[in-house]
Amino acid sequence: MSAPRRNGQLSSCEPCRKSKLRCDHSAPTCNRCVRRGKADLCVYHPAPLTKPRELSRPLKAIRTATKEQMLVPAKTLKWDSLSASSPATVLTPAAFPNPSKLPFSGSGFLGPTSYSGAFSNSELDVVDFPSSTRSTPIDPQQVARGAQVLFLLEHLPLFAEISKKRFTISPGWVFGSPLMDQLFKVLEEVYRNATQDSGNKYARLLDLSRTFFKNTVTPIVTHESMTLAEYFSLAAPRWEMLSLLFGFAGTATYQLPPHSLGLEHQDEITSKEGLRQICIQASQTCLQFCNHLGTLSDPLSWAMVQHAIYLSHMHGSSVAKTKQDHRTWQMLGEITTTVFALGLHQPDTDNTAPFFLKEIRKRTMVGAYALDKELATFLGRPPRICWRYCNIQYPLDMSYEEIVAEPAIRDAAIARLDPEGWNIDGCIDKGAKARARLAASIDEENALEISLSNRLDGLEEKVQKARKKSDELRRSLPPYLQWTEDKTDPQVASFHIEFLYHEFLLLQTLYKRVGKGIDDFVNKALEIISILLHMVSLETRSGQVHPTVILDLCYIGLPAAGTLCTELLRRSQPQASVATASPQTPFPRSDIIQKLSVFVAQLKTFARQQEGDYEICIKGERIISQALDRVLSPAPVGVVASSDDPWNNELPGGDIGDTDFMAFLENFDWEQEMRLTFGC
Description:
Blueprint (H helix, E strand, L loop, with lengths): L13 H6 L11 H5 L85 H5 L14 H12 L4 H14 L7 H19 L5 H16 L11 H8 L3 H17 L16 H22 L4 H18 L3 E2 L2 E2 L2 H16 L12 H25 L20 H4 L3 H8 L17 H20 L7 H17 L14 H25 L3 H25 L4 H9 L1 H15 L2 H7 L8 H18 L7 H19 L25 H10 L13
Antiparallel strand pairs: 1-2
Subcellular location: Nucleus
Keywords: Coiled coil, DNA-binding, Metal-binding, Nucleus, Transcription, Transcription regulation
GO molecular function, one term: zinc ion binding
């Protein structure tokens, strides 16, 4: 049914209005137009009496194009109108297939147990799967919202500068610099051609918004020899790509040092907090557009992964006592649905996909798998993506520049890989991070399977077997990813610490479930703290501490320090000293006290105020400090902690006994926040 006019009457379609005939207001096509053979002309104009906009040159992003590409007509779009003859992009004259003619069903990837298993591939090729959303109209209000989002492209140079600074810290392994640079390049030209020499920018952006909607519901047709520039000429003017842009820029504000953003002004777009709010809302709005249209594409999976990382930085990833927010966990569910529907969990058999797209798909799946493992571990929930049901492929150890390069350069880079796919140059800034992240995530799933299991029979044997597998997996990494004290790369140390942390989780499970392995548990925690402090010392001397080290300090160091703190206080009690003493391994009391003291100081220094990890870090620092005070200087009876400190409302006061304080330590959740270890 058509939208009502201001007087409450329903709008007539254009053919009926111009012919002065009574319209029955049916949607998407009125019955009178069907009978008169004018169904193709039957559209409901939202403002039929408005003056036509000024003539301006056609919008196109490739100046060498031989055929001018006009803007999409100002009408309510329908899926029915998106045929192969429709100009579906403002960039190239390529024809698109019907949206229902996908390489899989309307619901996406079909596995061996699906209904398709009863048919051969040739039989499936002739089946036209019906689409339940083919007649879904695009709401004019959505088009207007899209125009508001597109207004933000006026600040595209700012977003591009933030992205450039982000890549100076560390090259992304899911979304690399060539990918983001090409996205900015195409969108800049699209926006410029849409708005320059126009006296009515909003009208032009409304047309551009309609184009984005039309492109978003149109499949991206690829071929094996397709270049990155060709791909982005089709993929960039889509809502999922805009979501990726805003999500990446917003996340970068958390990854960059505050002084390097250059946001000294305090207006809404140039203040750091204002920019974050704008980016998160714009990214979320673009994803809502995609959800409304039922979009399923590779760029959508990219945007979702980046948006989840952004949410974790802004809102946290857990339902903590002081922060009831589960948006990151909810987004993980949407990511899982999308990567499964795209079939990214299985080897890529798409012969029409170019080389770079196949590699990006591998990295996207690794990113989703790693995110799933880390969220599941830190929230103590079952993982959504299980290794036993997937055949996730290791990405090749190549840089993004090599992946998107010409075939000759790409083949030369492939020739410098060993039989396992690692580069023989010992360079960590290529694809090694993606491959190491997948190995670490597999190890994390092994630890998670034991930690979340309710079965206690054979637990000690299972833990020891998992620890052995973890050590073998870590040692299978190439030599340049094996950490030793003489190596200064924080990424190598981070991978090493992560494998140690998985062992820490296994030993924690063994100790808490059956009360065994306390010495190994404490020693593993002490090893983690020692390496962390060593890396902080090296980074401090270099003049700048890498964000990875700070993340490890907060999210791996804090649980390890909490374990040492609890055990230190327990062994300081006279009645417990005999029961907990181990004749085989002396308790390193002095070493633990020294390193916990340094750890507290470093935590206080590097925890960024008012950001996602600040509250839990400072709360943990206060608890550890209070435990050290009790060990070194027992408080006199009757002394109560000062009420001037607002944290004392949550921490136990100095007048409670050590036994009660130990109970508080054991029940304190040292892992309330999420540690996202990969920079996309």
